[in-house]
Amino acid sequence: MRMVLLGAPGSGKGTQGEKLVAHYGIPKISTGDALRAAVAAGTELGRKAKATMDAGQLVADDIVIGIVEERLAQDDARKGFILDGFPRNTAQAQVLDAMLQRLGQPAVDKAVHLAVADEEIIKRLLDRAQKEGRADDKEDVIRRRIDIYNAETHPLLDYYRAQNKVVTVDGVGELDTVFDRIVKALG
Ligand code: B4P
C-alpha cells in the first residue's frame, strides 16, 4: 500500500498516520515531523525552515523533496509507505510521481482525504497549542495555514481524482471511528 494523506492542518493526518503504520506495517514519512526534528536539532536545514514554519507558510519545495527522496530510498519503504503532509502542492505531487519512477517503485495507490470543517480544525489546533505549545498553533497562523491549504493543497484532490485515486473520509468523530472509516474505505 502506497498512500498519501491529504487534509487541512489539524484534520488528523499525523494522528491517523500513526494508526495506519501499526495496521499496515509500513513506514510513515511526515515532512512536518522531519522539519520539526531538524529545527529542534538546530541543523542548517532546521534554521532555514523555522521562520517559514512559524509563520504558517510552506517551506521551499526543494527542502521537503530532499527529505522525502532520502527516506523513500530506504529499504523499508520499498514495500509501501504512508506520506503525511507531502505532497502539499501540485509541483510536489509531480515530483513524487517522477521520484517513484526513478527509484523503480510503483506509483501511489491511494490519496486519502480527511474532510474536516474549518471551525473544528481551529478548535483542535488551539487545543493542541495548550498541550504542546507549537509556534504555528496560534489563531492567526492557523487561519493562514488553512488559507494556504485551500489555495495550494486542496487542488491536489483534482490531481489524484484524475487518476481515480481519491478516497474521502469524514474526519470528525472518535479517533478509532475515523480510523475504521479509513480502513474500510481502503478496502
Ligand atoms: P504538518 O506537520 O504537516 O502539520 P499539520 O498540517 O498541522 O498536521 P498535523 O499532522 O500536525 O496535525 P493532525 O492533523 O494530525 O506541517 C507543519 C508545517 O511544516 C507546515 O505549516 C509547513 O510549514 C511545513 N511543511 C510540512 N510539510 C510540508 C511540505 N510538504 N511542503 C512545504 N512545507 C511543509 O492533528 C492535529 C490535532 O488534532 C492533534 O492535536 C490531534 O490530537 C487532533 N485530532 C486529530 N484527530 C482528531 C479527531 N478525530 N478528533 C479530535 N481531535 C483530533
Account of the 3D structure:
- The protein has 187 residues and is α/β, with parallel strands linked by helices.
- It has helices at 13-24, 31-41, 44-54, 61-72, 90-102, 118-132, 139-153, 156-161, 175-186, and strands spanning 2-7, 28-30, 81-84, 110-115, 166-170.
- The radius of gyration is 16 Å and the shape is globular.
- The model has no long low-confidence stretch (mean pLDDT 97).
- Residues 9-15, 31-32, 35, 52-53, 56-59, 64, 85-86, 88, 92, 124, 128, 136, 145, 173, 175, 178 line the site of BIS(adenosine)-5'-tetraphosphate.
Map the helices and strands.
Layout (H helix, E strand, L loop, with lengths): L1 E6 L5 H12 L3 E3 H11 L2 H11 L6 H12 L8 E4 L5 H13 L7 E6 L2 H15 L6 H15 L2 H6 L4 E5 L4 H12 L1
Parallel strand pairs: 1-3, 1-4, 2-3, 4-5
Helix pairs in contact: 1-9, 2-3, 4-5, 6-7
Bound molecules: BIS(adenosine)-5'-tetraphosphate (B4P).
Bound small molecules, deduplicated: BIS(adenosine)-5'-tetraphosphate
State mean pLDDT (0 to 100 scale).
Answer: 97
What is the count of β-strands? 5
Segments where pLDDT lies below 50 for 5+ residues?
none
Biggest β-sheet description = 5 strands, parallel
Q: How are the strands ordered across the major sheet?
A: 2-3-1-4-5
* DSSP helical segment count: 9
* Helix-strand makeup class: alpha/beta
State the end-to-end distance.
Answer: 11 Å
| Rg of Cα set | 16 Å
Give the proportion of residues in helices.
55-70%
Strand content: 5-15%
Global geometry: globular
Along the chain, the helix and strand elements come as: EHEHHHEHEHHHEH
